[in-house]
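thread: overnight batch results

M.L. [08:02]
morning all. the overnight job finished for the chain we discussed friday. pasting input first so we're all looking at the same thing
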Amino acid sequence: MKHLVVQVSISAPNDKLSTLVEPNVPSVSERIKCIRALNEEGIYTIVRLQPLFIPWIPEIVEGLFELVSGEFLKCCQEQYR
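M.L. [08:03]
and the structure it wrote out:
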């Protein structure tokens, strides 16, 4: 599986906003559970923030980054506060 990469797109920082923007798709929390499960199996996973809604950037930095980040993004998170 070294050539397998899974990309998951997220457009909103939480389930409530995600439901407004993307009805009838898995919630943000369900996608994060999927990302964690794939990671535990050693599958390289990319989280894509698309489309990026500028008014939600503070919520994305404060909430969503924390949910999906490893040590790498934690250092980047400090730059955008």
